[in-house]
Amino acid sequence: MAKILLLLASLSGFTGVGLGAFAAHGLRNRLPDNLLTAFQTGVQYQLWHTAALIGVALLLLRSPDNTLLKAAGVLFALGILLFSGSLYTLALSGLGKLGMVTPIGGVLFLIAWICFGAGAWRLS
């Protein structure tokens, strides 16, 4: 599981940096400020939670049977996909209904942090 999370973190970090550069250089004069801000928020949350994925994976190397840490990793990955992904799609497509998906990703992040803390607490 740790290896999979590290690979996901690698992919997420790569795409997060690429999308951040795309926003800064390719979208700055093409999107209204509110949509550019939404896109940039997606990038920020993606990169912060990529770091969290790395932390979870490293802890799983120490404690591979820790189900709370495994849950945290899965929830962080799903949160990135739903939260950041919906903001990217919203900003680029203008489909306002996608805004309903963003809070689901945010809730997954919150649950992931709870699992992370509880899983870390259980470490010997």
Number of helices: 4
Encode the helix/strand succession as letters: HHHH
Indicate how many domains the architecture comprises: 1
| pLDDT averaged residue by residue | 96
Query: Which outline best applies?
Result: elongated
Quick take:
This protein is an all-alpha fold and 124 residues long. 83% of the residues lie in helices and 0% in strands. It has one domain.
Describe the structure using short key phrases.
mainly alpha; 83% helix; DUF423; transmembrane; 124 residues
Task: Provide an overview of this structure.
Pfam families: DUF423. It is a multi-pass membrane protein. Belongs to the UPF0382 family. The chain crosses the membrane at residues 44-61, 68-88, 100-121. It is found in: Membrane. The protein has helices at 2-27, 33-62, 67-93, 102-121. With 124 residues, the chain is mostly helical. The chain has one domain. The protein starts with a helix and ends with a helix. The mean pLDDT is 96.
SSE layout:
Blueprint: H1 2-27, H2 33-62, H3 67-93, H4 102-121
Helix pairs in contact: 1-2, 1-3, 2-3, 3-4
Family: Belongs to the UPF0382 family.
Subcellular location: Membrane
GO cellular component, one term: plasma membrane
